[in-house]
Specification:
CATH class of the largest domain: Alpha Beta
Structural class: alpha/beta
Strand order of the largest sheet: 2-1-3-4-5
CATH superfamily of the largest domain: P-loop containing nucleotide triphosphate hydrolases
Largest sheet: 5 strands, parallel
Distance between the termini: 23 Å
Number of domains: 4
CATH topology of the largest domain: Rossmann fold
Shape: globular
Helix content: 40-55%
CATH architecture of the largest domain: 3-Layer(aba) Sandwich
Strand content: 5-15%
């Protein structure tokens, strides 16, 4: 978290200087820009909480900038500065989404009141987002880089339709966020939203999960029924067994299916979004994925870029996730120093946004001071890079053993590793592993893993 930032965009140096001095005296961080190009760069780099922009500038007018920046839920309030003869334009800009307008010559009292109220509205919007994210997974694309602006535009264009879609991207890049954003932008937003993590389901269980079953008059519904009239997300569709692919394709074409154990057809009406980290065209070439099933989704496709391709969004993401984690974990107020954020920004992040969020969570849980500094962040990053050799399969000789034993060793190492990274939080572990909590507890017990031990270890290390 950081101090509130105000970006002042005006081609008059005196306006930038005077307004900047007044607002600095109020404890605000000030950035200034003399033209649209500099303004766009400062906007992306600093993620301001409020923008003051002159309506009339030599290169690009302020209304154009307003329309560029008012594109998402996390966009900041924009206050227009109007000169003589542009008040009518200022009023029109308010209708276009501006928070308010200030008329030149600027009144200090009006400036302070407007800025205070605009920042209060920003804080209220953030609190509403925090509340929603506490109640449901994130569905807001965060960041103002060109890559994220393009992603938001695609969601705005595709979401209101009813076409099925395919979301691709590296693991942890935010495909689930995009799927939820599409649902929230659709006419089905009030209907069910169901996600199925296909990669975590055994092939013999996938049919049951998707289609349900009927046994002696007892009906167990599947995801196709649970999501009826809403949105069904098939996460990891590339992992689906070929036999299940055939059954799914037939159901999608007919818009009906028969539950195993029943002769009664079940009809459904829903939007389906598939997501994958794999190259489905390569899997088609290898005979591992049906081309006809691929064609059901491929006409509408969204690619989510990896974090290393939009590093300029990292400061905003650090701020966003820090607020959410502090709120959800009931932690004391914490902020990241500029040097710490710069260090985080310069990494490649092979695990993408998911890995970044995990780092922020570990730092916030371990922190003992209000500010998380450079050294603290570097130490946490170095510890995350260390390979815990106790979690790896013993080299060479370990492969000369029965598959079941080798698999148990891997699973034990896998769950210990993620338990420690999740600080013993079973909800987080269930999310990481894609397993339901009841199955997860049974799995840990069978492997002789005590979830409380990982949590106690983290607490002891942080003292």
């Amino acid at each position: 978290m950081r101090p509130q930032t105000v970006l002042i965009v005006d081609d008059e140096p005196d306006i930038r200087r005077v307004v900047g001095e007044i607002l600095r005296d109020e404890g605000l961080h000030i950035e200034t820009a003399e033209n649209a190009d500099v303004a766009r760069e400062k906007f992306r780099e600093h993620s301001p909480d409020l923008v003051l922009v002159d309506i009339w500038m030599p290169d690009t007018d302020g209304v154009t900038l307003l329309k560029e920046w008012k594109t998402g839920e996390d966009s900041p309030p924009v206050v227009m500065i109007s000169g003589h003869g542009t008040v009518e334009t200022a009023v029109e800009s308010v209708r276009a989404g501006a928070y308010d307008f200030l008329e030149k010559p600027l009144s200090t009292a009006k400036l302070l009141v407007t800025v205070e109220r605009a920042l209060e509205s920003r804080q209220l919007k953030d609190e509403n987002l925090l509340l929603r994210n506490r109640l449901e997974p994130a569905s807001t694309v965060t960041g103002r880089s060109p890559a994220m602006e393009n992603l938001r535009q695609q969601i705005g264009r595709i979401g209101p339709g009813d076409d099925w879609a395919l979301i691709t991207g590296e693991p942890g890049s935010g495909k689930g966020v995009v799927a939820r954003a599409l649902h929230r932008a659709s006419p089905r937003r009030a209907a069910p939203f169901v996600e199925v993590r296909l990669s975590s389901i055994a092939p013999d269980s996938a049919l049951l999960r998707l289609f349900g079953q009927e046994n002696n008059g007892i009906i167990q519904t599947g995801s196709l029924e649970d999501a009826n009239h809403g949105t069904l997300v098939l996460d990891g569709i590339g992992d689906l067994d070929l036999a299940v692919q055939a059954s799914l394709l037939n159901a999608l074409k007919e818009k009906r299916f028969f539950r195993p154990g029943s002769d009664e057809p079940v009809t459904f009406d829903l939007r389906i979004i598939a997501s994958t980290s794999q190259d489905l065209e390569d899997k088609i070439a290898d005979g591992q994925f049906r081309e006809d099933l691929y064609r059901c989704f491929a006409e509408v496709s969204i690619w989510v870029p990896p974090l290393r391709q939009h590093r300029e969004d990292i400061p905003a993401l650090v701020d966003y996730y820090a607020r959410i984690i502090v709120d959800s974990e009931r932690l004391p107020f914490r902020r990241f120093s500029t040097a710490a954020v710069n260090l985080i920004r310069n990494r490649d992040w092979p695990g993408n946004v998911r890995e970044l969020r995990e780092l922020i969570q570990r730092l916030l849980l371990a922190a003992r001071t209000e500010e998380i500094d450079l050294e603290e962040t570097r130490a946490m990053l170095n510890s995350a890079n260390e390979i815990d050799t106790t979690l790896r399969l013993p080299p060479t000789a370990s492969y000369e053993q029965p598959l079941r034993k080798a698999r148990e060793q891997f699973e034990r190492g896998y769950f210990i590793h993620h338990l420690e990274r999740a600080a013993g939080n079973m909800t987080e572990l269930a999310h990481r592993s894609g397993m339901e909590r009841t199955h997860l507890y049974r799995k840990l017990k069978s492997l002789g893993i005590d979830p409380k031990a990982a949590k106690e270890k983290r607490e002891n290390n942080s003292r």
